[in-house]
Amino acid sequence: MTSSAKSTWLVPTLLIILTAVPVVAGAVRVAELTGGAEVTPENARFVAAPVPVLLHIVGATLFCVLGAFQFVPGLRRRKPGWHRIAGRVLVPAGLVAALSGLWMTLFYPQPPGDGELLTGFRLLFGSAMAVCIVLGFVAVRRRNFARHRGWMIRGYAIAQGAGTQALTHLPWMLVLGTPGETARALLVALGWVINLAVAEWIIRRRPTRASRSAGGVSRPARRRPARPSRSSPEPASCRTSPPTSSVPSR
């Protein structure tokens, strides 16, 4: 594999690695709910209403794993149909993940250690994820590919929050132990903020020309104004001899 090919696949590889922690945790939860695991205080709310959490796990897994491959420019150029087909899966999967997450935040009993601050953060960023995906869908329907790209990257960044939140919690737990209610809420929010900051950097550093050309949109060529010919006749008022005709030559 050449160095350019390695760099092309670096971003999706890192994104899939970042997704690994929540995907594994989600798989364990699915096995627990479908395998008749013992009901505990930690999982009682999920056992009582398993559909929302199952929808959330499936939607988030599809959105994060499949979405990682949308960051491969060569794949979009070689197989433009892939990007469109994947997008038709990603938009509903992302909305299912966001809306089911909001439902769980509002209607599941609040587990110990979460608190109102964390609930507020979850409602804020979950709503923002849904809005970003909807705006991205509206933009692509209007063939505004640069705006579509920006909103979908922001929505994807929020969806990847669980992976980054594992990284923000790790140093705190190694040094200070289990975070308290406020510290936990701030560490969770920090994961989303970091992801959105990286997303904005990606959106602003890459030119939008590639996005327009990938979507088949190109700017019309500008026409330069025609220069007057040097051999054009002088105006009649500048001639020393009277014109031979009453109609000026062109």
UniProtKB/TrEMBL annotation:
Keyword Cell cycle attached: no
InterPro entries the record matches: DUF2306_membrane
Positions of transmembrane segments: 51-73, 85-108, 120-140, 152-173, 185-203
Low complexity: compositionally biased ranges: 210-219, 228-250
Keywords annotated in UniProt: Membrane, Transmembrane, Transmembrane helix
Positions of region (Disordered): 210-250
Pfam families: DUF2306 (PF10067)
Protein name: Membrane protein
Annotated source species: Plantactinospora soyae
Lineage of source species: Bacteria, Bacillati, Actinomycetota, Actinomycetes, Micromonosporales
